[in-house]
């Protein structure tokens, strides 16, 4: 059962990269709470699709078509929200790129594109939002991180590097802006069912190998990540700042052991 937080009604929430997957689930969750949701996507179709679904569920939402990797466009998302509604209460930084290619085949342009969106988007949107949050007396920034921040994944090094930087940037924001009433926290999803990995996880062998690495023995749902993001924006989480909340079924709690037969014999 979804918990209702009356305090979130009429709050202004900006969600970047909200056209699909985890970002979309987070936007819908805030819409269900009665918040005014600013739905960001690089395409009008992506943004309007989420806006329509929020409206169909009885919520309020507006589209904000912009590339958060462009500092001017990122700032404009926040400024337009404040102009229309007078404030910004929550920023959810979700937009990210993850091209798959060996590092030796990665061009500077591809590398830079990942950094400008994944890290630059948080810097630009976060800075713009924090300026208003400080003036209005507080606010909440939620950053969608990844286990890739601490574990290198083959053929995804630009993404891993960007997530490591993203985690540190979030900590820096928490440290510098916390005294001014702005809390910044990271939500770190593990394996989550989304349209991005649907075809990959459709292979029964792949799904079995993935779930065996997760103590909860299942893959998570985007709605489970969204519930944590919503909670972090409430008074119930008022003393949570600079934290990383792992929503991964225990995936990062340990490692699957490969034990040679001779060591098994020693333990008998």
What's the β-strand tally? 9
List low-pLDDT spans: none
Overall, the morphology is globular
Instruction: Give the CATH level 1 class.
Output: Alpha Beta
Oligomer: single chain
Strand coverage percent: 15-25%
Q: What structural class do the secondary elements suggest?
A: alpha/beta
Neighbour order of strands in the largest sheet: 3-2-1-4-5-6-9
Question: How many domains, as an integer?
Answer: 1
CATH topology type: Rossmann fold
Report the C-alpha radius of gyration, rounded. 19 Å
CATH architecture designation: 3-Layer(aba) Sandwich
Tell me briefly what this model is.
With 268 residues, the protein is of the alpha/beta class. 44% of the residues lie in helices and 16% in strands. It has one domain (6-251): Rossmann fold (3-Layer(aba) Sandwich).
Structural key phrases:
single chain; 268 residues; alpha/beta; Rossmann fold; two-stranded parallel sheet; 9 strands; globular
Question: Can you characterise this structure?
Answer:
This protein is globular. It has one domain (6-251): Rossmann fold (3-Layer(aba) Sandwich). The chain is α/β, with parallel strands linked by helices. Helix 1 (21-32) links the parallel strand 1 (12-15) and strand 2 (36-41). The mean pLDDT is 93. It has helices at residues 21-32, 44-56, 71-85, 108-118, 120-136, 157-177, 198-201, 204-211, 222-232, 261-266; strands at residues 12-15, 36-41, 60-65, 90-93, 139-144, 182-189, 192-193, 220-221, 244-247. Strands 3-2-1-4-5-6-9 form a 7-stranded parallel beta sheet, sandwiched between helices.
């Amino acid at each position: 059962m979804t918990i209702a937080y009356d305090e979130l009604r009429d709050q202004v929430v900006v969600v970047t990269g909200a056209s699909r997957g985890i970002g979309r689930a987070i936007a819908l969750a805030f819409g269900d709470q009665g918040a005014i949701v600013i739905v960001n996507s690089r395409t009008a179709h992506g943004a309007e699709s989420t806006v329509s679904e929020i409206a169909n569920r009885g919520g309020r939402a507006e589209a904000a078509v912009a590339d958060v990797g462009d500092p001017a466009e990122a700032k404009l998302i926040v400024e337009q929200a404040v102009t229309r509604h007078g404030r910004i209460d929550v920023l959810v930084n979700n937009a990210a790129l993850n091209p798959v290619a060996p590092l030796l085949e990665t061009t500077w342009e591809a590398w830079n594109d990942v950094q400008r969106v994944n890290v630059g988007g948080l810097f630009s949107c976060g800075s713009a939002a924090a300026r208003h949050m400080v003036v209005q007396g507080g606010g909440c920034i939620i950053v969608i991180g990844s286990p890739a921040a601490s574990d290198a994944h083959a053929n995804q090094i630009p993404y891993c590097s960007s997530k490591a930087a993203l985690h540190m940037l979030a900590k820096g924001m928490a440290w510098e802006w916390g005294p001014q009433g702005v809390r910044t926290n990271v939500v770190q999803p593990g394996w989550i069912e989304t349209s991005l990995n649907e075809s990959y996880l459709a292979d029964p062998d792949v799904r079995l190998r993935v779930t065996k690495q997760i103590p909860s023995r299942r893959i998570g749902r985007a709605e489970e990540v969204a519930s944590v993001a919503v909670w972090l924006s409430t008074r119930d989480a008022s003393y949570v700042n600079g934290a990383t909340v792992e929503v991964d079924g225990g995936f990062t709690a340990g490692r699957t052991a490969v034990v040679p037969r001779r060591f098994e014999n020693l333990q008998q």
